[in-house]
Design a protein that fits this description.
With 214 residues, the protein is an alpha/beta fold. The chain contains five helices and 13 strands. Strands 1, 2, 3, 4, 5, 6, 7, 8, 9, 10, 11, 12 and 13 form a 13-stranded mixed beta sheet that branches.
Length: 214
């Protein structure tokens, strides 16, 4: 089952979102992300958060339209987006798309980029999408396929330490059982040669970013 989560950040390409939606997706809004749903003509199945970004009237209308409202106290240990991800996992989603995760606040943006590495999310594929940009986390022992076209930019960023045993195919600058060092920039701005590339990782965590040129 696939979940589509709307966070309360910037939504740069509404047409991309509508094109990505599939029949059977469960749509979840993290607090103010419900406004993105409204702007797209969608009613989320679930709205979750402490609701410091939605008015009582907006919440009431969402409930009238059939959305389940899951309320948390303002003093909590998780952001609304993390709660939405946890909720999607509780529904047995094995793939999650996240829109609106990036924005003007660097602290929120950085935290959202790191969320796929949070405990409890190990067995689900999470992709953050923002216009032409797509981000996914690769864990030790996993492989990730990057679908794009020639000229798309791919960057590989190690998280939490060095990433070892990296092997890539379909990239201009290949790695074979290579290492990318935490804090260094060797993995930035690689390029896809054709329609698809793959990245395999033996040890560590690796943030995989693709920027589509069109």
């Amino acid at each position: 089952m696939r979940a589509v989560i709307f966070a309360n950040g910037t939504l740069n390409d509404p047409h991309q979102v509508l094109a990505a939606l599939q029949a059977g997706d469960i749509v979840i809004a993290a607090d103010g992300g419900a406004r993105h749903c409204r702007a797209l003509g969608l009613t989320p199945a679930v709205v979750i958060g402490d609701f410091d970004s939605l008015s009582a009237g907006e919440l009431a209308q969402l409930e009238m339209d059939g959305a389940q409202v899951v309320r948390y106290a303002a003093h909590k240990d998780f952001t609304d987006l993390e709660l939405a991800l946890q909720h999607a996992v509780s529904l047995e989603a094995d793939e999650i798309l996240v829109f609106g995760a990036l924005g003007a606040r660097w602290d929120q943006t950085l935290a959202n980029l790191l969320l796929p590495a949070a405990p409890g999310l190990e067995h689900v594929c999470i992709r953050l999408l923002d216009g032409p940009q797509e981000i996914a986390l690769l864990r030790a022992g996993e492989a990730h396929t990057l679908n794009g076209q020639a000229g798309d930019i791919v960057s590989l960023v190690p998280l939490g330490g060095h990433a070892h045993g990296i092997t890539t195919t379909g990239l201009e600058y290949p790695l074979t059982d290579g290492t990318l060092y935490f804090g260094a920039t060797r993995g930035i701005s690689n390029v896809i040669l054709g329609g698809q590339a793959t990245v395999r990782l033996e040890d560590g965590l690796l943030l995989c970013t693709i920027i589509h040129k069109d």
